[in-house]
Structures are given as structure tokens and as C-alpha cells.
Design a protein that fits this description.
single chain, 298 residues, alpha/beta, Elongation Factor Tu (Ef-tu), domain 3, Rossmann fold, 7-stranded antiparallel β-sheet, 5-stranded parallel β-sheet, globular
Length: 298
């Protein structure tokens, strides 16, 4: 493995995460299942990892995160990283199981331009079943379920941001049996192979396509080989009339999850639908004030 010339130094939000993690209580959890959910022919390795805590008092929920304390480098004890909870927490055999969705990541070093494997993601993707990991959390507010089954639900996400949406959709149709309001999912990925929980390798969400109120709209990069941005804004624009109708409804809940960079393109798409930035941001403030706007960005 190539070693960077200069040691990696956490900075900004990452340094804050290190400080917070070292002061928070650290728990052990054991990996009980590791499933690749992208096809083998895909260049992207994304895994659904299930961990177990032998402690019934532990709880987390969709829309929250846990911080995995991967082994550190260059004198750091830990290399902490946040991951979204990818499923509802389940009690089994006197313990608690929870899942996270992890994409194997590489980064370009700012100093020498070399590509290096991401520390935490590669540690987790290579982790053997039965290994104990350290983590803290959960962090953040869980996605709140609408009180009424007639409420509309609009979900917008990219990449591993689909993790809490998967749990939300399963809750709607497995716990309640049906949902009367519209349920719309706009989900973006680099290519069709990377449509997590929606590709040939894992069709977890396919069982819900026959629900009369559920529709999913996929957005992929127009030039995945060149790392062109995912066209999530185009998918929203192509369904502008319905999105506008949902935005106007007083009982619509909006959920946003994924990388922070997606926020700009989503805002631009919604500004176009609303006709002006002032109209969109005024509407967004009203959604937040009424508890109908939920987001988890990383």
C-alpha cells in the first residue's frame, strides 16, 4: 500500500468529530452480516452491514447516524466516520441488531494528487463477520412519521442516502399495510448498477412497486465514466407538476438524505418549480416551521 508523504490531519468538521468522539461513550458491536448490494460487475462496492449489540437498552432509528470508530493512523487512536442507519432496529435473541450502508471510498490527496483508499470505508467493507467494532451514537433526530396516513411523502436522496428511505418505505407498507397519501422517491446514482436496493443484485424495494400510492424515479449520471453529476434535478423537473402539487399540499412531508453536495441541485430544481428563489425558500421555511421538512446530509 502506498503511504502518503505527509500524514493525514483531520481539520474543520472532521477535527470536531474527532473531539466529540473521544468524549462520547464508546460501545462495541459485532458484525453479523456483510452483503454487497451492488453487482460484482459494478465498479462501486457498496455493502449492507448488520451489527449486533448484546444490550437491549441500545436504540436508534431511521434518519439517525452512528459514528464508527475505525482504527486510526499516524498516531490517532480512531478514525471516526458517520454512517446512516439503513434499517429499523430489530430485537433478536436478547440483543439489538442495526444496519448501516457503506460505500468503499477512495480519495485524492491534496498534496501529491495520488489516489488512496478511504480509511473507514475500506476497513468496514473488508471487515470479517464476527469482528467487534467500536462506535458512538446514535446522533441526529430520527425521521418522524406523519401522524396521518393521508399525508404525502416526498423523498429525495443520492447514494447511500437511500438507507433511511428504505426503512421509511418498509415501515409505511409493512407496519401500516397501506398508505393513503402519495409516496414519491427521487433517487440518484452514478449508473443503474449503483441503484442501491433497486438493482439486479438487491431488489429490496421492488416489492413495493405494486403499492398504488408508491412511485420511484431514478436519476443517473449522463456520463458516469467522466464522473458527471447525477441528474437528480432533471428527474425532479420531469415531474414538476406533481412535485409542485405536493409542495402546495398542507400535509406533505419532505425528506432529504445523501451527500451535502446534492443540496444545491435539489434547491435549484425546486426553485425552478416554484418560479423564484424567494418563493421556494419561503415555502421551505414554512415546511420547517411545521415540522414537515427533514434532512440528513453528510
Amino acid at each position: 500500500m502506498i503511504v502518503p508523504i505527509l500524514p493525514y490531519r483531520p481539520k474543520g468538521p472532521e477535527m470536531s468529530a474527532v473531539r466529540e468522539s473521544t468524549s462520547a461513550k464508546i460501545y462495541p458491536a459485532t458484525l453479523v452480516r456483510s452483503e454487497r448490494i451492488t453487482p460484482e460487475k459494478s465498479a462501486e462496492d457498496v455493502r449492507h452491514l448488520v451489527f449486533r449489540r448484546d444490550d437491549l437498552s441500545f436504540s436508534c432509528a431511521m434518519g439517525q447516524c452512528v459514528r464508527v470508530m475505525a482504527p486510526g493512523q499516524y498516531g490517532n487512536q480512531y478514525h471516526p466516520r458517520l454512517y446512516l442507519v439503513a434499517d429499523n432496529v430489530a430485537e433478536r435473541d436478547g440483543g439489538i441488531e442495526f444496519a448501516i450502508c457503506v460505500k468503499r471510498h477512495n480519495y485524492i490527496d491534496d498534496f501529491n494528487g495520488e489516489r488512496y483508499p478511504g480509511i473507514a470505508s475500506n476497513y468496514l467493507c473488508d471487515l470479517p463477520v464476527g469482528t467487534s467494532v467500536q462506535f458512538t451514537g446514535p446522533f441526529g433526530y430520527p425521521f418522524a412519521m406523519p401522524a396521518s396516513r393521508k399525508a404525502n411523502i416526498l423523498m429525495i436522496g443520492m447514494g447511500t442516502g437511500i438507507a433511511p428511505f428504505r426503512a421509511l418505505i418498509r415501515t409505511l407498507y409493512e407496519t401500516y399495510g397501506s398508505w393513503d397519501g402519495k409516496v414519491r422517491l427521487f433517487y440518484g446514482a452514478k449508473s443503474g448498477l449503483e441503484m442501491l436496493y433497486m438493482n439486479d443484485e438487491n431488489k429490496d424495494l421492488a416489492q413495493y412497486v405494486y403499492q398504488p400510492t408508491f412511485k420511484a424515479f431514478q436519476a443517473i449520471s449522463p456520463r458516469p465514466a467522466f464522473d458527471a453529476p447525477v441528474a437528480i434535478d432533471q428527474a425532479i423537473a420531469q415531474n414538476a407538476a406533481e412535485v409542485w402539487e405536493m409542495l402546495q399540499a398542507p400535509d406533505t412531508y419532505i425528506y432529504l438524505a445523501g451527500v451535502d453536495q446534492m443540496q444545491a441541485s435539489v434547491n435549484q430544481a425546486l426553485i425552478a418549480i416554484c418560479g423564484s428563489a424567494d418563493t421556494w425558500y419561503e415555502l421551505k421555511d414554512a415546511l420547517k416551521a411545521s415540522g414537515r421538512w427533514h434532512e440528513v446530509l453528510y
